[in-house]
Amino acid sequence: MPRGLFITLEGLDGSGKTTQIKRLEAWMQKRGLHPVVTRQPGGTATGDRIRTLLLDSGSTPLAPMTEMALMFAARAQAIAEVIEPALAAGRIVLCDRFTDSTEAYQGGGRQFGSEPVLNLHRLICGNLQPDLTLLLLPSLQASLTRARRRNERTAAETGQDENRFEQEQGEFFRRVWEKYREIARREPHRVVLIEGNLSIDEVHEQIVEAISERLVAVQH
Predict the structure, then answer these.
(1) Judging by DSSP bridges, how do beta strands 36-39 and 92-96 pair with one another?
(2) Element (H, E) at 37
(3) How far apart are CA 138 and CA 14, in angstroms?
(4) Half-sphere exposure of 89 (CA within 13 A, CB side)
(5) Using an 8 Å Cβ cutoff, are 172 and 107 in contact?
(6) What average pLDDT does the chain have?
(7) What tens digit of pLDDT does each residue of 81-90 get?
(8) Rg (alpha carbons) of the chain, rounded to whole number
(9) What domain range is 175 assigned to?
(10) How confident is residue 163, by pLDDT bands cut at 50, 70 and 90?
(11) Model confidence pLDDT, tens digit, residues 165-208
(12) Domain count of the fold of the chain
């Protein structure tokens, strides 16, 4: 059986990833592709518990190295329990964040640099690489405004608090944003950069174009 296709969506909180993954899943379902959809951190019972610890603003203070180690712990579980079995079965996997997020947030934002993140990825994740990464990069201010508004609304509606990273200062997010751009420049064969303050429909159109090209390439 041919191996499946591993597709990740990346970007700052508020970049529109969640909306676009839902639209992409619906687009694929209509074409009979039936992807497995997951997220990082999370996607498993263990990973969701780690996610709560990592994102809840009540978890501060959390040492930066602890934060990165927990990210990789959740990822290793997701690879073993969800991602690898689906790929081995020939399925398409859509994942909201993967190691690019750790390189951007911990490598860039926390200033660890890329090398320790990539070394841990090789050690803990078997160097599993996405076949395609869709990087949504609207302006920094637009992302931050949307993320804070969304998290406040979610907290009010559900009682879930995932605001810990939004408590960081602007320079932290500037470093994350710049690290994402660095990753896109370094790996243009894998990363499709979709930048600017585009509409939801415009972003979806670019995503569908990138996905369609990759699906044609796989089929041939």
Answers:
(1) parallel
(2) strand 36-39
(3) 9
(4) 13
(5) no
(6) 90
(7) 999 999 999 9
(8) 17
(9) 5-219
(10) low
(11) 666 778 899 999 999 999 999 999 999 999 988 999 999 999 99
(12) 1
Closest CA to 11 of 197, 217, 219: 197
CA distance 60 to 165: 10
The alpha carbon torsion through 12, 15, 18, 19 (nearest 10 deg) reads 180
pTM over 0.70: yes
CB 150, CB 14: distance < 8 Å: yes
Q: Which two tokens stand for residue 40?
A: 């990082």
Q: Is residue 207 within a helix (H) or strand (E), and if so which, with residue range? A: helix 200-219
Neighbouring residues of 180: CB distance < 8 A, sequence distance ≥ 6: 10, 11, 12, 100, 104, 108, 135, 137
Provide the percentage of residues in the chain whose pLDDT is more than 70. 89
Q: What are the E-state strand segments in 55-189?
A: 92-96, 132-137
pLDDT of residue 11: 95
List the CATH number of the domain containing 62. Answer: 3.40.50.300
Average pLDDT over residues 206-219: 86
